[in-house]
Amino acid sequence: MLTGCTGGGSTNGKRMPQTGDTLYTEERAMAIYDTLPERALQILDSAEAVGSMPDYRAALFRAKVLSNSTVMMQQDSAIIICEALLRHDEAQRNVDYRQDVLELLVNAARMRNDYEEMVLWGTELAGLLRGQDLETEALRTDADLGLAMTHIGQMDEASPRSTTPSGNSATPGNSTNSMPG
Predict the structure, then answer these.
(1) At what angle do helices 95-111 and 55-67 cross, to 10 degrees?
(2) How far apart are CA 19 and CA 52, in angstroms?
(3) What is d(CA 102, CA 121) in angstroms, rounded to the nearest whole number?
(4) Contact 38, 74 (CB under 8 A)
(5) Which residues of the chain carry a pLDDT beneath 50?
(6) Rounded CA separation 43/64 (Å)
(7) CB atoms within 10 A of CB 8
(8) According to the model, what pLDDT value does residue 181 have?
(9) What does the angle CA 66 – CA 128 – CA 92 come to, to the nearest 5 degrees?
(10) First to last CA, the chain
């Protein structure tokens, strides 16, 4: 009877994952993700399939690969993955994991020039860092937030403003446009 490489001695027909023997690891995927992103994604999928990596870790690294892309759709996918990961049990109980997810969200927002999202996620990240007594990292995040808020302010100033016939600005909140009485 053949029982060697074919697994003929198995009674249920399923092969048990042998995580120690696999080449599909997060280390291997992360070593190539910036130069071979498609291959890194394949490695992550395989690592998850053979059981050498839990689904939430594979999803985090998948988001990291996608957020490094210059393709807007892949960045959008990274953001969707990370937003879902923030609701995952692991992000609720593991502050380091939550920090990793928030850092990816801030970086993805920066890559997309989405400064409002950058401020949203960066504010949470800065608070989390301060809660861990990582003041230097929190200050770096604060500096990024200041830059994002500067960009938001510049966009507001650059937005077109119309004027009324009397020369008053017709911007929202300006109540000088009253009817003669």
Answers:
(1) 20
(2) 5
(3) 6
(4) no
(5) 1-15, 19, 21, 162-167, 169-181
(6) 14
(7) 9
(8) 46
(9) 70
(10) 103
